[in-house]
Amino acid sequence: MSSLKDQRGILQELEKLESVLSGTFKKLSVINDHLRPLEHSLRAQEFSSSGSYVRGMSNGIVCILSALIKGDPLAISIESIKGTGRKFPAIIKGSDRSETNSTCESILKIVEGKPGGIPINYVINLRWANLPPVIDGRNVLIVGTRYYHGRKDALKKLYNQLQEIGCQILEDRGEFGGGLLTFKMTELAKKIGNITVLEITLSRHLAQDHERVADILESLTIL
User: Fold this and answer.
1) Which residues contact 27 (CB under 8 A, 6 or more apart)?
2) 149 - beta bridge partners?
3) Where in the sequence is the domain holding 2, given as residue range(s)?
4) Domain boundary among 49, 70, 86
5) In this structure, are 31 and 57 located in the same domain?
6) Are residues 215 and 121 in the same domain?
């Protein structure tokens, strides 16, 4: 009889413990929800020590991780078209062409944090390269297709827009198919949902043409 009472007592204590743990987990969940925006903010501040975020006029972000490298063709073009009043996406500038993991993680947190308080429709990783002579040209850009997320009709719409401004579009799944940042961004996009992620590489000639770079940035807002 005593043994039965002991068992009941143990069960009651376990039920109380379960109730306490359940309440604790709920509180931790609430705390985590409050801390998440702070984490995003801290990530953005951490990135701001080596990069910068420039607000844009559309619900998209263009990452240019060479835009803070002195003498870089894209850096010069971006600086030249600043303040022109044209409709550009937000731009994340950096000085990390190699796309280190810490830089990529910081950018992911910025995107997750929905800067400006609005959903992000697209994230473009914009790069430049010295292309092989056989494909090099003033109007050439390469769209990476190894890592890509988005609707095919959105991509077709962008292609049409880029061709209208005179760009010659090539696709590549190899060297220019997408790097670490684009890969991580596509993985995030699968969780977020309706967002286009793309890597675009400009020829050096195109990256040096300030007006053409402005045209391309403006074209991206069609997404």
Assistant:
1) none
2) 197
3) 1-49
4) 49
5) no
6) yes
**pLDDT tens digits for the chain (223 residues)?**
556 556 666 666 666 666 665 666 565 554 544 444 544 445 555 555 567 888 888 889 999 999 999 999 999 999 999 888 899 999 999 999 999 999 999 999 888 887 767 788 999 999 999 998 888 777 999 999 999 999 999 999 999 999 999 999 999 999 899 999 999 999 999 988 889 999 999 999 999 999 999 999 999 999 9
Alpha-carbon 162 to chain mean position: 21
Tokens matching residue 65: 């991780």
How far are the Cα atoms of 22, 74, 80, 116, 139 from residue 212, in angstroms, in the given order? 58, 11, 12, 27, 9
Residues 43 and 103 in one domain: no
What are residue 36's DSSP bridge partners? none
Count of positions (residues) in the chain: 223
User: In terms of DSSP H, where are the helices of the chain?
Assistant: 2-48, 73-80, 101-112, 152-164, 180-192, 204-208, 210-220
Using CB atoms within 10 A of its CB, is residue 199 exposed (0-12), middle (13-18) or buried (19+)? buried
Number of domains in the chain: 2
SS3 203: strand
Q: Does one domain contain both 69 and 38? A: no
Q: Quick check: pTM over 0.90?
A: no
Instruction: Say how far apart CA 108 and CA 119 lie, in whole Å.
Output: 14
**Both 15 and 121 in a single domain?**
no
